[in-house]
Structures are given as C-alpha cells and as structure tokens.
Amino acid sequence: MRAVYFLLIALFVMSCGNKTDGTPYADTTTDPMGSHNMSVDMHSPTLVADNAVHLKDITVLNAWARHAAKGDNSAVYMIIENTGINDTLMSVDSITAAAIELHSAMNNKGMMSMDPVENGILIPAHGTLQLQPGSFHIMLIGLTTELTSGASVPFELTFANAGTVEVNAEIR
Amino acid sequence: MKFIRFLILTLIISSTLSSCVRYTFKSSPIVPPDSAFNIALTDQNTQPFQLTQLKGKVVLVFFGYTNCPDICPATLSDLQLVKNRLGTAAANVVILFVTVDPGRDTPAKLNRFVQQYDESIIALTGNPADLGAVYHAYGAGAERRDTPNSAMIYAVDHTSTVTVIDKNGMRRLLIGFGSPIDDIASDINALLAE
User: Fold this and answer.
1) Which domain holds residue B157?
2) Chain B contact present for A18, CB below 8 A
3) What is the CATH number of the domain that holds B153?
4) Which of B9, B68, B178 sits opposite A36 (nearest CB)?
5) pLDDT tens for the 194 residues of chain B, in order
6) How many domains is chain B built from?
7) Inter-chain residue contact A9 with B16, CB threshold 8 Å
8) How many CB pairs under 8 A join A and B?
9) Residue A129 contacts B where some CB pair is shorter than 8 Å
10) From CA A146, how far away is CA A171, in angstroms rounded?
11) ipTM value of the model?
C-alpha cells in the first residue's frame, strides 16, 4: 500500500517537472546577443583561435557588427584584452559609416540611455574590455553600405599606446 | 492510524499537484494582471492599428527608435530568436515596436528597420498625443536628449522593458533587457498554453 502512495507521489512530481521547466527546444541557435550573459564562454580557446588580432600588448577578439540597412545605424562589439599597462581605445575608422563614435549605454532602473564617450575607453592594465549590447559599443552612424549577415567588414582601431590595428568584424 | 496516514499522503499529493500546475514565470509578473491600454496608432504601412485586433495572440510591446544602434536592435534580435525557438507556435505571437522618435521615424524608415529582423513585426507611430498616451500607459518614459558631441544630434532615452500581453488582452509580464532567450520562450509558451 505504502509503495503505491510513493509511486503516486513520484508520478506527480515527474509530471510536474515536465510542466515547469519544459522548454521543448534545447537547440543551440546562434545567439548574436550571447555576449551579455556568456562572458565566460567568450574566453574559450576556440573563439580566441577564431579571429584574434594582436598588436603589442593588445589582443582583439570576437569582433562583430549587427546587420543593418544602408542609411541606418549599427554597432560593433568585441573583446579587447590588454596584457600591458593602461591603454585607451581612442577612435575607430571605417568606410562603412558617415560617422563612427565610441558610445556607452546605461541602464538606469530600466531606462536606457546612450551617450558618446569622451576621451576614449580605458582598457585597464592586465584587464579586459568587453564591448557588448547594453554597454560600451562602437556606434556606426549613417551606414554607407548595407551590412549583410555573414559578410565581414574591416575596421581600424586606434589605441593611445599600442597604435593602430585593423580588425575584421563579422556581420551577424 | 491507517486513516491518518492516508490523510497525510493525500495532503502531500494535493499540495505537490497544486504547486506544479501553476507555472512560475521567469520574467517579472504584473500582479495582479491589468487590462492592457488599447494601443491605437498607425503601422509601417500607414494603416490604422488597434491592439484589440490582436485578441487571441500573445503580444510583446517594445519601445525604441530606429536610430538606436544598440539596445533596440539587440532586443528585436532577441525577440526574433525567441520566435524561432517557438516554432509553429510563433504564429500566435506578435511583436509591436512603438517608436519613441516620431520626428525621425517615418513609416518607411520604420518598415526598413523592422524588416531587418522579422517581417511580422508591427512598427507603430502616430501623433504626439496618441503616442504620449501609449508611453504613459506602458511606462515607456521616452525622453529626448540633445547630444551635441554626437552625429546622432539627439538620443531618446526610453525603457528597455518588453511588456507581454496575454491572449485575453491582459498585461502579464515585464521582460528585462538581456533576459535569456530560453526564459522568454518558456514564459511565452506558458501563456500560449493557457
């Protein structure tokens, strides 16, 4: 008799488990937004090997830009690692947009605001800067060409210490 | 003795059952749910739109502007991924993109912008009074701010929260920026199953 009761409870608990967390699609659709909660994965060796660009103490990883129509705006994201002393990302250049600015987005109790960054973005000594949605990003204002998913676009990054390096950003 | 044991086990079973039937939302629930303000604006094809047309569908309302390069595309991209996860059920989910920058967001520009994400997104604009009423009802807090040091000329601060309206036109959930795709999809599935 007791065994029957326990079996019943077990059955209820099992059916309950399916109902509460049952997202029937545990697939791995590519998430272009992955950066905002996958910071650990970003440092996996596969990604580093993918499209890392080195310049003195600076390493730029995983550069990507969001697809957008000609004339619209877009943003570029990447991870910048610094194994040396403090450095600063001063400016970004590309023929893809009429103007390119360094911006930061701020989330103030759900209100989002965006502002240009004055005097560049610091990459602390032996630190990492993540340009990611909802945070620091490179803003492309007035695209001169459509950014099509799957394509790749070159950008020139200028650092105060390390100098200038060209990085290819994948369009996602 | 046997009766007491039966009683206790029955209680355990019934409490387990009642606790699991109620799905726990991963986004912030609106408690108690309230009737969603009827959004009556103009869509990207310059056709009149009323929220009440969408009864029977789960509606996701997001405020933004096409010049916004970061938060708005990120959110629309997330919502598109959510719809991909939902598969055929996505046909019963509608995304509304309400502009907070009617001065620059013409219907044509709104159309071009949302086409980048999902053809089924309904992009909305309207006159300042109608838009203002919608911002107020949904707490969108659209605030224009001049940015003299930027080619943007001005930015529009706005809430990044997505409001979820259920099939009966009730406001049910608020999704915060950057919420995991799986969580949003799971919540919407639960609303679709109601």
Assistant:
1) 25-193
2) no
3) 3.40.30.10
4) B178
5) 565 665 555 555 555 555 556 899 999 999 999 999 999 999 999 999 999 999 999 999 999 999 998 999 999 999 999 999 999 999 999 999 999 999 999 999 999 999 888 889 999 999 999 999 999 999 998 889 999 989 999 999 999 999 999 999 999 999 999 999 999 999 999 999 99
6) 1
7) yes
8) 148
9) no
10) 10
11) 0.80
